[in-house]
Amino acid sequence: MSPESSATPGTSAPRGVSLSGESIWQTPGRRQGGCGRSLHRAGGGPMDAPRRGPKEERGVTVERIVVAARACFAEQGWAGTSLRGVARAAGVDARLVSYYFADKTALLQACLQPPPGFAERVAAAASAPLDRRGAALLEAMLANWNDPASAVVLRSVILTAAHEPLALQQLQSVFRTALIGVVAGSLNGADGPGGEERAVRAGLVASQIVGLFMTRYVWRIPPLSELPDEKVFRLVAPTVQRYLDGPLDR
Amino acid sequence: MSPESSATPGTSAPRGVSLSGESIWQTPGRRQGGCGRSLHRAGGGPMDAPRRGPKEERGVTVERIVVAARACFAEQGWAGTSLRGVARAAGVDARLVSYYFADKTALLQACLQPPPGFAERVAAAASAPLDRRGAALLEAMLANWNDPASAVVLRSVILTAAHEPLALQQLQSVFRTALIGVVAGSLNGADGPGGEERAVRAGLVASQIVGLFMTRYVWRIPPLSELPDEKVFRLVAPTVQRYLDGPLDR
C-alpha cells in the first residue's frame, strides 16, 4: 500500500488531506506542483469570473495570490520564490501582486496567518470538562486537519518552517499561544497543578498531537496514515488525556 | 525564554542539537547558514590538511562535500542548490564535486543516507525485554539525537523532506524498515498480537517519538525543548511502553 492510497476518495482519509497535499507530495515529477502550474485553465484565458478592477475583486484576487504563494514558498523556499513566479502560478498580472503586497516578506507573512478556525476550535475544546478534555482536544485537531481550508495552511506552514526562519517563528508563536498556552491555561483551576507542570502537560499533549499529524498527514507513514479517524482517535485520546490529568511518571 | 536558549552550552540540551541546528535556525539573517558560508577559514586558504590527490583524501573530501550539500538542500531545496554552490560552501573545487558525484541526484542521495548507528541503536533497543522495551526505544532515539553525527543527518533529512519528494521517500523508507518494521517485529512472539496490531502499535510508538523530536529538537517549542533528557525520558517512556504492550483503547 503506498502512502498516497490514504488520499483516494472513498477511503477513510480526511478530505482536506488529499486536497492540500496534492500539489506538493503527489506529483511524480519535480516542480510541477501548485507553484509551477498556473491556475488558468489549460490553453484558456483567465477563469470565468468577469474581470473587474482590483478594488472590487480584492478578496478573491488576494486569496488566489496567497494560495499560489503558499505552494511556492513550501516547495521552493524563500530564495526560489519570486513575486513574478507567484503571479504566474496564480494566473494574475505581476503588477497586481505588487499592488496587494508591498514585498516578498509581506506576501510570506500573509501565507503564514493561522488557519481560519484553528485557535477557536482548540479554545472550545480546552473548555470541555477535564475528564473529556483530552478527547475534545484531539477531536479539535483532527477537525483542523479535516477542514481543507485549515489543513492547507497547517501543511504549508509546517513545510515552509522547514526552511524559513520567519515561518518557524510563526509556527512557534501559534503553538505557544493557540495550543500550549490555551491547554496550560485550561488546567489553571483552584486545585490544578502549578504553572510549570501545566506547561509541561500542555507540551506533552502537543508532542503527541504533532507526532500523530506529522506521521499521518505530512509524511504519510503507514499504518497510521491508513487508519480511519475514529480508530486513530480511540488509540491516541487516552494518551492525550493522561498527559492532561494522569500521573506523569508511569 | 527563546527557543534558542535550549542550545546554550551548560543547559540541558543535548550536544548534537546545537551543533546540528546552528546553520539553519540560529542565524538571524537569511541565507547565511552552512550553505552560503564557505568552510574555509575567513580570509584564509584551504584548511590545514595538506593538499593531496583526490584518491588519497577521498573520505575527507566526500564528507566535506556531503556536509555542505546537506545544509544547501535543507535550506535552499533542490532548485536552489547547485553543484557549484555546494563546492563553494565546502571550500573545494567544483570539478571535485563532479568527480565524486555524477549529478545533483547522486549528491542528494548521499545526503539522505540514514545516520550512522541509527538502525543499530533502534534494533538493539527492540531486543530489550518487553517490559523495558519502551524505555529502551526512547533511550535509543534520544541517543540518536544526542549523537551529533546522527542528529545532523536526521535534522537535514527532516528539513529536506519538507520540500523534496526524494527526501520524503527516504524518510518514509527508513521509518518503515528501521523503526516501524523493527518495533513491530519485536512484538512478534508466540503470544504476541497479530500483524496488523503489531504495525499499529509500532506506528503509535513512532508517532510519539516523532512528535517529541519535532517539538523538542526541530521546532524547539518550550517547555519540552528546555527540559533535561532525564525528565523528558520519565515523562514520555510510559506512553511508549503503553503503546507496546498496554491496552490500546483507554
From TrEMBL, chains A, B:
SUPFAM superfamilies: Homeodomain-like, Tetracyclin repressor-like, C-terminal domain. Residues 82-101 bind DNA. Residues 1-11 have a biased composition (Polar residues). Residues 1-58 are annotated as: Disordered. InterPro entries: Homeodomain-like_sf, HTH-type_TetR-like_transc_reg, HTH_TetR, Tet_transcr_reg_TetR-rel_C_sf, TetR_C_16. Pfam families: TetR_C_16, TetR_N. It comes from the Bacteria. Residues 31-46 have a biased composition (Gly residues). The keyword DNA-binding applies. Residues 49-58 have a biased composition (Basic and acidic residues). GO terms for molecular function: DNA-binding transcription factor activity; transcription cis-regulatory region binding. Residues 59-119 form the HTH tetR-type domain. Keywords: DNA-binding. PANTHER family: HTH-TYPE TRANSCRIPTIONAL REGULATOR RUTR, TRANSCRIPTIONAL REGULATORY PROTEIN. This is TetR/AcrR family transcriptional regulator.
